[in-house]
TrEMBL record:
Record-linked InterPro entries: GIY-YIG_endonuc (IPR000305), P-loop_NTPase (IPR027417), SLFN_3-like_DNA/RNA_helicase (IPR018647)
Domain of life: Bacteria
Coiled-coil intervals: none
Organism of origin: Cryobacterium gelidum
Stated name of the protein: DUF2075 domain-containing protein
Pfam families documented for this protein: SLFN-g3_helicase (PF09848)
Stretches assigned to the GIY-YIG domain: 28-115
SUPFAM superfamilies on file: P-loop containing nucleoside triphosphate hydrolases
Length: 590
């Protein structure tokens, strides 16, 4: 039985004066409230105009409203909704406030005016019971026009997953706090700095980057007289001194992958203080007229060394930028060198074992970057697994299965992961059907594959790219935001469309490019079955050639990335019979 009430009235002093005396709880009870300027005609959202919304909690809602009336940033708001429940306490209200902020940011119809430092994930008595009430609150607010999408639609969206309004894990919070302390100390002493955030797939590197960027712009724009909640996370940085250190700061956010870059820009368009122009390529940084105070680089392992680029224009630009920055076309310079030359402070988020192409930064450069950060106490590891519900052991297990990287050694013992659907299919059609069923149930379920088939449909849209046992499939028809595209359920995504993204269920096709030698008891690469030209070409500029061992590292890393996309489950189909037999020892059959 619903115990809460939602009262709606105008955002005006007159309306609050009438409302406040009606119930003692309006002035002396923990409540949550929503302020917005939503227009009657929500169709204007489609024209790119967003409503503003602010969510708060208070023990004296009437007094808190008067504080909002004095805020210049909220003068345009028009509606108040107050959520009252006789059983609510402070902990419940903080949790509901955080829940509504996260959901409103993911809905996509609003600019959320809140700071992100108050988002909590604290446990308390009967939390699970209260969270059922939260969903009822959501439904009632949706029926009143506050939300425009369902809970599953919101939770499966990039706007939700890449939103800065996140509750951080303990190690993410420790990393953000450590970054801020070091960064502000370096600003105060006018010392250049390089910070490294290191974590395996699913530890939330991109979440930390976006959260941190939003936090910095909020601190920089803090109004000195603004009321603060001293209990909020990172409140100590919203005091005198820190804002002044950030005055006029020029920040850029470098995202090497095209698809992820465009998704993040969508989030920034809907977030006050963040601008899609902040989201850049390394080439954008190199050509920028001004230098940056701070550059945050996501997926830093995908920065390029000097190599043959995807286009002649980019090859020319690589040379032009290097000459511009260093006075000569020094082919030893990488995009990492561009970043450090164009900024006083850098934050690199990386995983050495996610390099997937020869043009990516070599492992030795990345490891040196980590080593320097550790020596200067500017290294922040992320350990908690945020994506895969199988837990942190799953990533290491996958890497050991494929023999990749530093976690690829040691005895391999078959494991099961309770609550996680990890299975191998011997029938590609059956796996495809299961992915479709899961997409119908929970959404965001897709087929993925290594680049073991030519991209025929790039020039012939009527053709098929992948044919296995009578099942014909096509590669992704777009590189940008493929996962959310209308055709994605009927297509197969490559590494370049999914690195950095989450799925609920991933069906991974391991193609004939990765095989198993039962005599040597090791995986090996079939060079002729690997069709990413940029993924195996030699580097003529640097005089580097890539043998089969080098190529095996890239291909194995690709499959390790693909096999760690699924939140709820991962399905596997293997083309090579010997590799299939080997993996059957360690992955349960469907």
């Amino acid at each position: 039985m619903t115990r809460f009430e939602i009262e709606r009235f105008d955002f005006s002093q007159e309306a609050v004066k009438v409302w406040a005396p009606r119930d003692r709880r309006n002035t002396n009870w923990p409540v949550v409230y929503v302020l917005d300027n939503a227009r009657a005609e929500r169709d204007v959202v489609r024209e790119g105009r967003l409503d503003d919304v602010y969510v708060g909690e208070s023990r004296n809602a009437a007094a808190r409203m008067h504080q909002h009336f004095a805020s210049a940033e909220k003068q345009h708001l028009s509606t108040i909704r107050v959520i009252v429940d006789a059983t609510f306490n402070k902990s419940v209200c903080l949790d509901l406030e955080s829940y509504l902020i996260r959901m409103l940011a993911g809905d996509g119809s609003y600019r959320v005016l809140n700071r992100n430092d108050g988002i909590t994930e604290a446990d308390y008595y009967d939390r699970a019971l209260y969270q059922k009430t939260f969903r009822e609150v959501f439904d009632q607010l949706k029926s009143d026009g506050v939300f425009t999408r369902s809970i599953p639609e919101i939770e499966n969206s990039d706007l939700f997953k890449l939103s800065p309004f996140k509750a951080l894990t303990q190690d993410q919070a420790i990393a953000v706090e450590g970054i801020l302390e070091g960064f502000f100390a370096d600003l105060e002493s006018d010392t250049d700095s390089t910070i490294v955030v290191q974590g395996e797939p699913g530890t939330g590197k991109t979440v930390v980057a976006i959260y941190l960027l939003k936090l910095l712009v909020d601190i920089a724009s803090k109004i000195p007289t603004e009321d603060l909640d001293s209990d909020s996370l990172f409140s100590e940085f919203f005091v005198d001194g820190y804002r002044e250190l950030l005055t006029g700061i020029n920040i850029g956010f470098v995202v090497p992958q095209q698809s992820l870059r465009e998704s993040i820009r969508k989030v920034f368009r809907k977030t006050p203080g963040l601008n899609p122009a902040m989201v850049m390529t390394a080439f954008d940084v190199g050509f920028a007229d001004d230098n940056f105070d701070l550059l945050i680089v996501d997926e830093s392992h995908r920065l390029n060394q000097r190599a043959n680029q995807p286009s002649g224009v980019q090859n020319k630009n690589f040379s032009v930028i290097t000459q511009k920055l260093f006075g000569t076309d020094d082919t030893s310079k990488t995009q990492l060198d561009w970043i450090t030359a164009k900024s006083k402070h850098q934050i690199f988020l990386l995983d050495v074992e996610q390099s997937v192409r020869p043009s990516d930064l070599p492992p030795e450069i990345l490891r040196q970057l980590v080593s320097v950060a550790k020596a200067t106490r500017r290294h922040h590891p992320l350990l908690s697994q945020m994506r895969v519900q199988a837990g942190a052991d799953y990533v290491g297990y996958i890497r050991r299965l494929l023999g990749t990287g530093s976690t690829g050694s040691g005895a391999l013992v078959p494991k099961t992961f309770e609550g996680y659907d990890f299975r191998m299919f011997d029938d590609i059609a059956a796996m495809r059907a299961q992915i479709r069923r899961k997409d119908a149930e929970v959404g965001l379920s897709r087929l993925l594959a290594g680049f073991a088939w030519p991209w025929t449909t790039k020039t012939d849209k009527t053709a098929y790219d992948i044919e296995i046992d009578g099942t014909a499939l096509r590669w992704n028809s777009t590189q940008t935001d493929w996962i959310a595209s209308s055709k994605s359920l009927d297509e197969v995504g490559s590494i370049h469309t999914v690195q950095g993204y989450d799925l609920n269920y991933a069906g991974v096709v391991i193609g004939p490019d990765l095989r198993y030698d039962p005599i040597r008891r090791s995986v090996f690469v079939d060079r002729d079955s690997y069709f990413d030209k940029k993924g195996k070409e030699n580097n003529r500029v640097l005089g580097k050639t890539y043998n089969d061992d080098d190529l095996l590292r890239f291909v194995s890393n690709i499959y390790a990335v693909l096999l760690t996309r699924g939140i709820r489950g991962t399905y596997v189909y293997v083309c090579d019979p010997a590799l299939r037999a080997y993996l059957h020892k360690y992955v349960a059959s469907a």
